[in-house]
Amino acid sequence: MNKRKKIIASLRNKRYSYIEIGRKLGISKQRVHQIHTGYVPPLRIKVKNLKILCKRKRIYLGLPEKINSNNGGRDFVREIVRERDNQTCQRCFKVWKQGQRKFDVNHLDEKIDTHGKGVIKYDKENLDKLITFCHKCHYAWHKEMGHTKNWNTAKI
User: Fold this and answer.
1) Do the Cβ atoms of 124 and 71 come closer than 8 Å?
2) C-alpha to C-alpha distance for 65 and 68, rounded to whole angstroms
3) For the stretch 100-120, what's the b/e string if a residue is b when 16 or more beta carbons lie within 10 angstroms of its beta carbon?
């Protein structure tokens, strides 16, 4: 048991409140409670918290360094989908590893033109119509759908 935890335990036995202990130690009452109970924060982050991460944490998690204030960049939306799918291909269940190329995020709705102006807004509103694929499965999916007819022909 560390020094702070011993001090907090002895003060709690003397009927001090978390607020009073926090004032004595110069920390918040929440932190006093965390130390006293042995709270350990969860390892995974929630998707709704991605916007408020500091730059260092975004780099550590492999997120884009810069996030616009109204953030709705294409990379940000794709990263939300990857996090929702736990960085796992939803077809073969391969898990992405740090240092590899990021998995692809694909539209399930074939009618969407991925280069149009309203795509990012559409993606934000319809995250359930986006899915994470590894590269092999992404190519295979497009091949099954018949989208690969002109992929191997170079235009000169």
Assistant:
1) no
2) 10
3) eeebbbbbeeeebeeeeeeee
Give how far Cα 134 sits from Cα of 33, 42, 68, 89, 103, Å. Answer: 43, 27, 27, 5, 5
Inter-residue contact 131 to 90 (CB < 8 Å): yes
What is the per-residue pLDDT for 61?
Answer: 64
Q: Which residue has the tokens 């092999």?
A: 136
Q: What residue ranges do the domains of the chain occupy?
A: 3-37, 47-145
Could you tell me how many residues make up the chain? 156
pLDDT (tens digit per residue) in 9-46? 999 999 999 999 999 999 999 999 989 988 876 545 45
The predicted structure's pLDDT at residue 77: 79
